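Open question from group meeting: does this chain pack into something compact, or does most of it stay loose? Before anyone orders reagents, we agreed to write out a predicted structure and look at it together. Recording both the input and the output here so the notebook holds the full record.
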Amino acid sequence: MLKQSTLFRKLPLFDACEQQSAQNWLPLEITQLSAGPYQGQLREIQHHDVSVFFEQQNCMVHKRGIMVDPFCTVSFARSTNAQVRLSEYDSQDNSLFFIPSESEVDVQVAGDVETVYFRFNQAKFLERARAISPQYWATVPDSALIFESPLRKSLEVFSHHLYSHPLFQSDAEVTNDNQGLCSFIMDRLLLALDESSVNHDVRQDLIARYRAKERVNQALDYIHGVLENEGCPSIVDICVEMNISQRNLQYSFKKILGFTPNVYLYHLRLNRARAQLIKADNNNITVTQVAMYWQFWHLGRFSNDYLRLFGELPSVTLSRVLT
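Structure tokens returned:
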């Protein structure tokens, strides 16, 4: 008998950075974009080469990172008319998203939308995918794909049946026979994709969104690089770096993220400040130090904006962490 680890987790989430650190297999930054005290939940089952995640939060978030080797994911939003964006694509009722290994993860999710995603070992996933559709999966996709699947609703039922399965309620001693369950889960997703149509939409609006997304990603890469070096770029800095007009930059951010670059950058800095306060491990750190580090020079405005976004003052966050 082979001892295998079956993991079942149900985690309450009270902050975007908690949600981020809960998925330590994926280098990801999650930024809270809508106001209010953060509440969410991550449910997870892991068995052999398959993991299923159910993720929900009450605030709009932007998730950005890279899908690490050797994993790929298939995901969907579990609600009608869910406001979910993956790269330049907006989710529809029957949308399935495929994110291959080593590709960009760029997802924006509205509040109170549950996303479900299946994580697979990509090599094993593609081996089975090529068996049923050798022509389509002959080459490995190098970026995220969106499928329109008539089986999306049945996958929702299937995923929640999995979550209630007795095997996934606690650590269990299983035999090699249970590898068949992993193949069954993977095959269910593969068949749903095989019955789907890939979105090859070449409308002018989608082309414009793709170009805007590329500009936003270039700007965000520059912003993150400056922030990591204890600086804070201005809009002029970004325009100079990218050789782009302010009007074009504003258009791109509004088109993709729904925010101006100034507003998004301000939210990003507030999220970074909150993450630093939450990770404080000694009494020597102060709210003023954190505010100054992230270049909030007006402490009163910083505290008010922090309260508006997160539902508590920065001093309350820090005292809660240190007590």
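Observations to bring back to the group:
The domain at 204-322 is CATH 1.10.10.60 (Arc Repressor Mutant, subunit A).
The chain has eleven helices and 13 strands.
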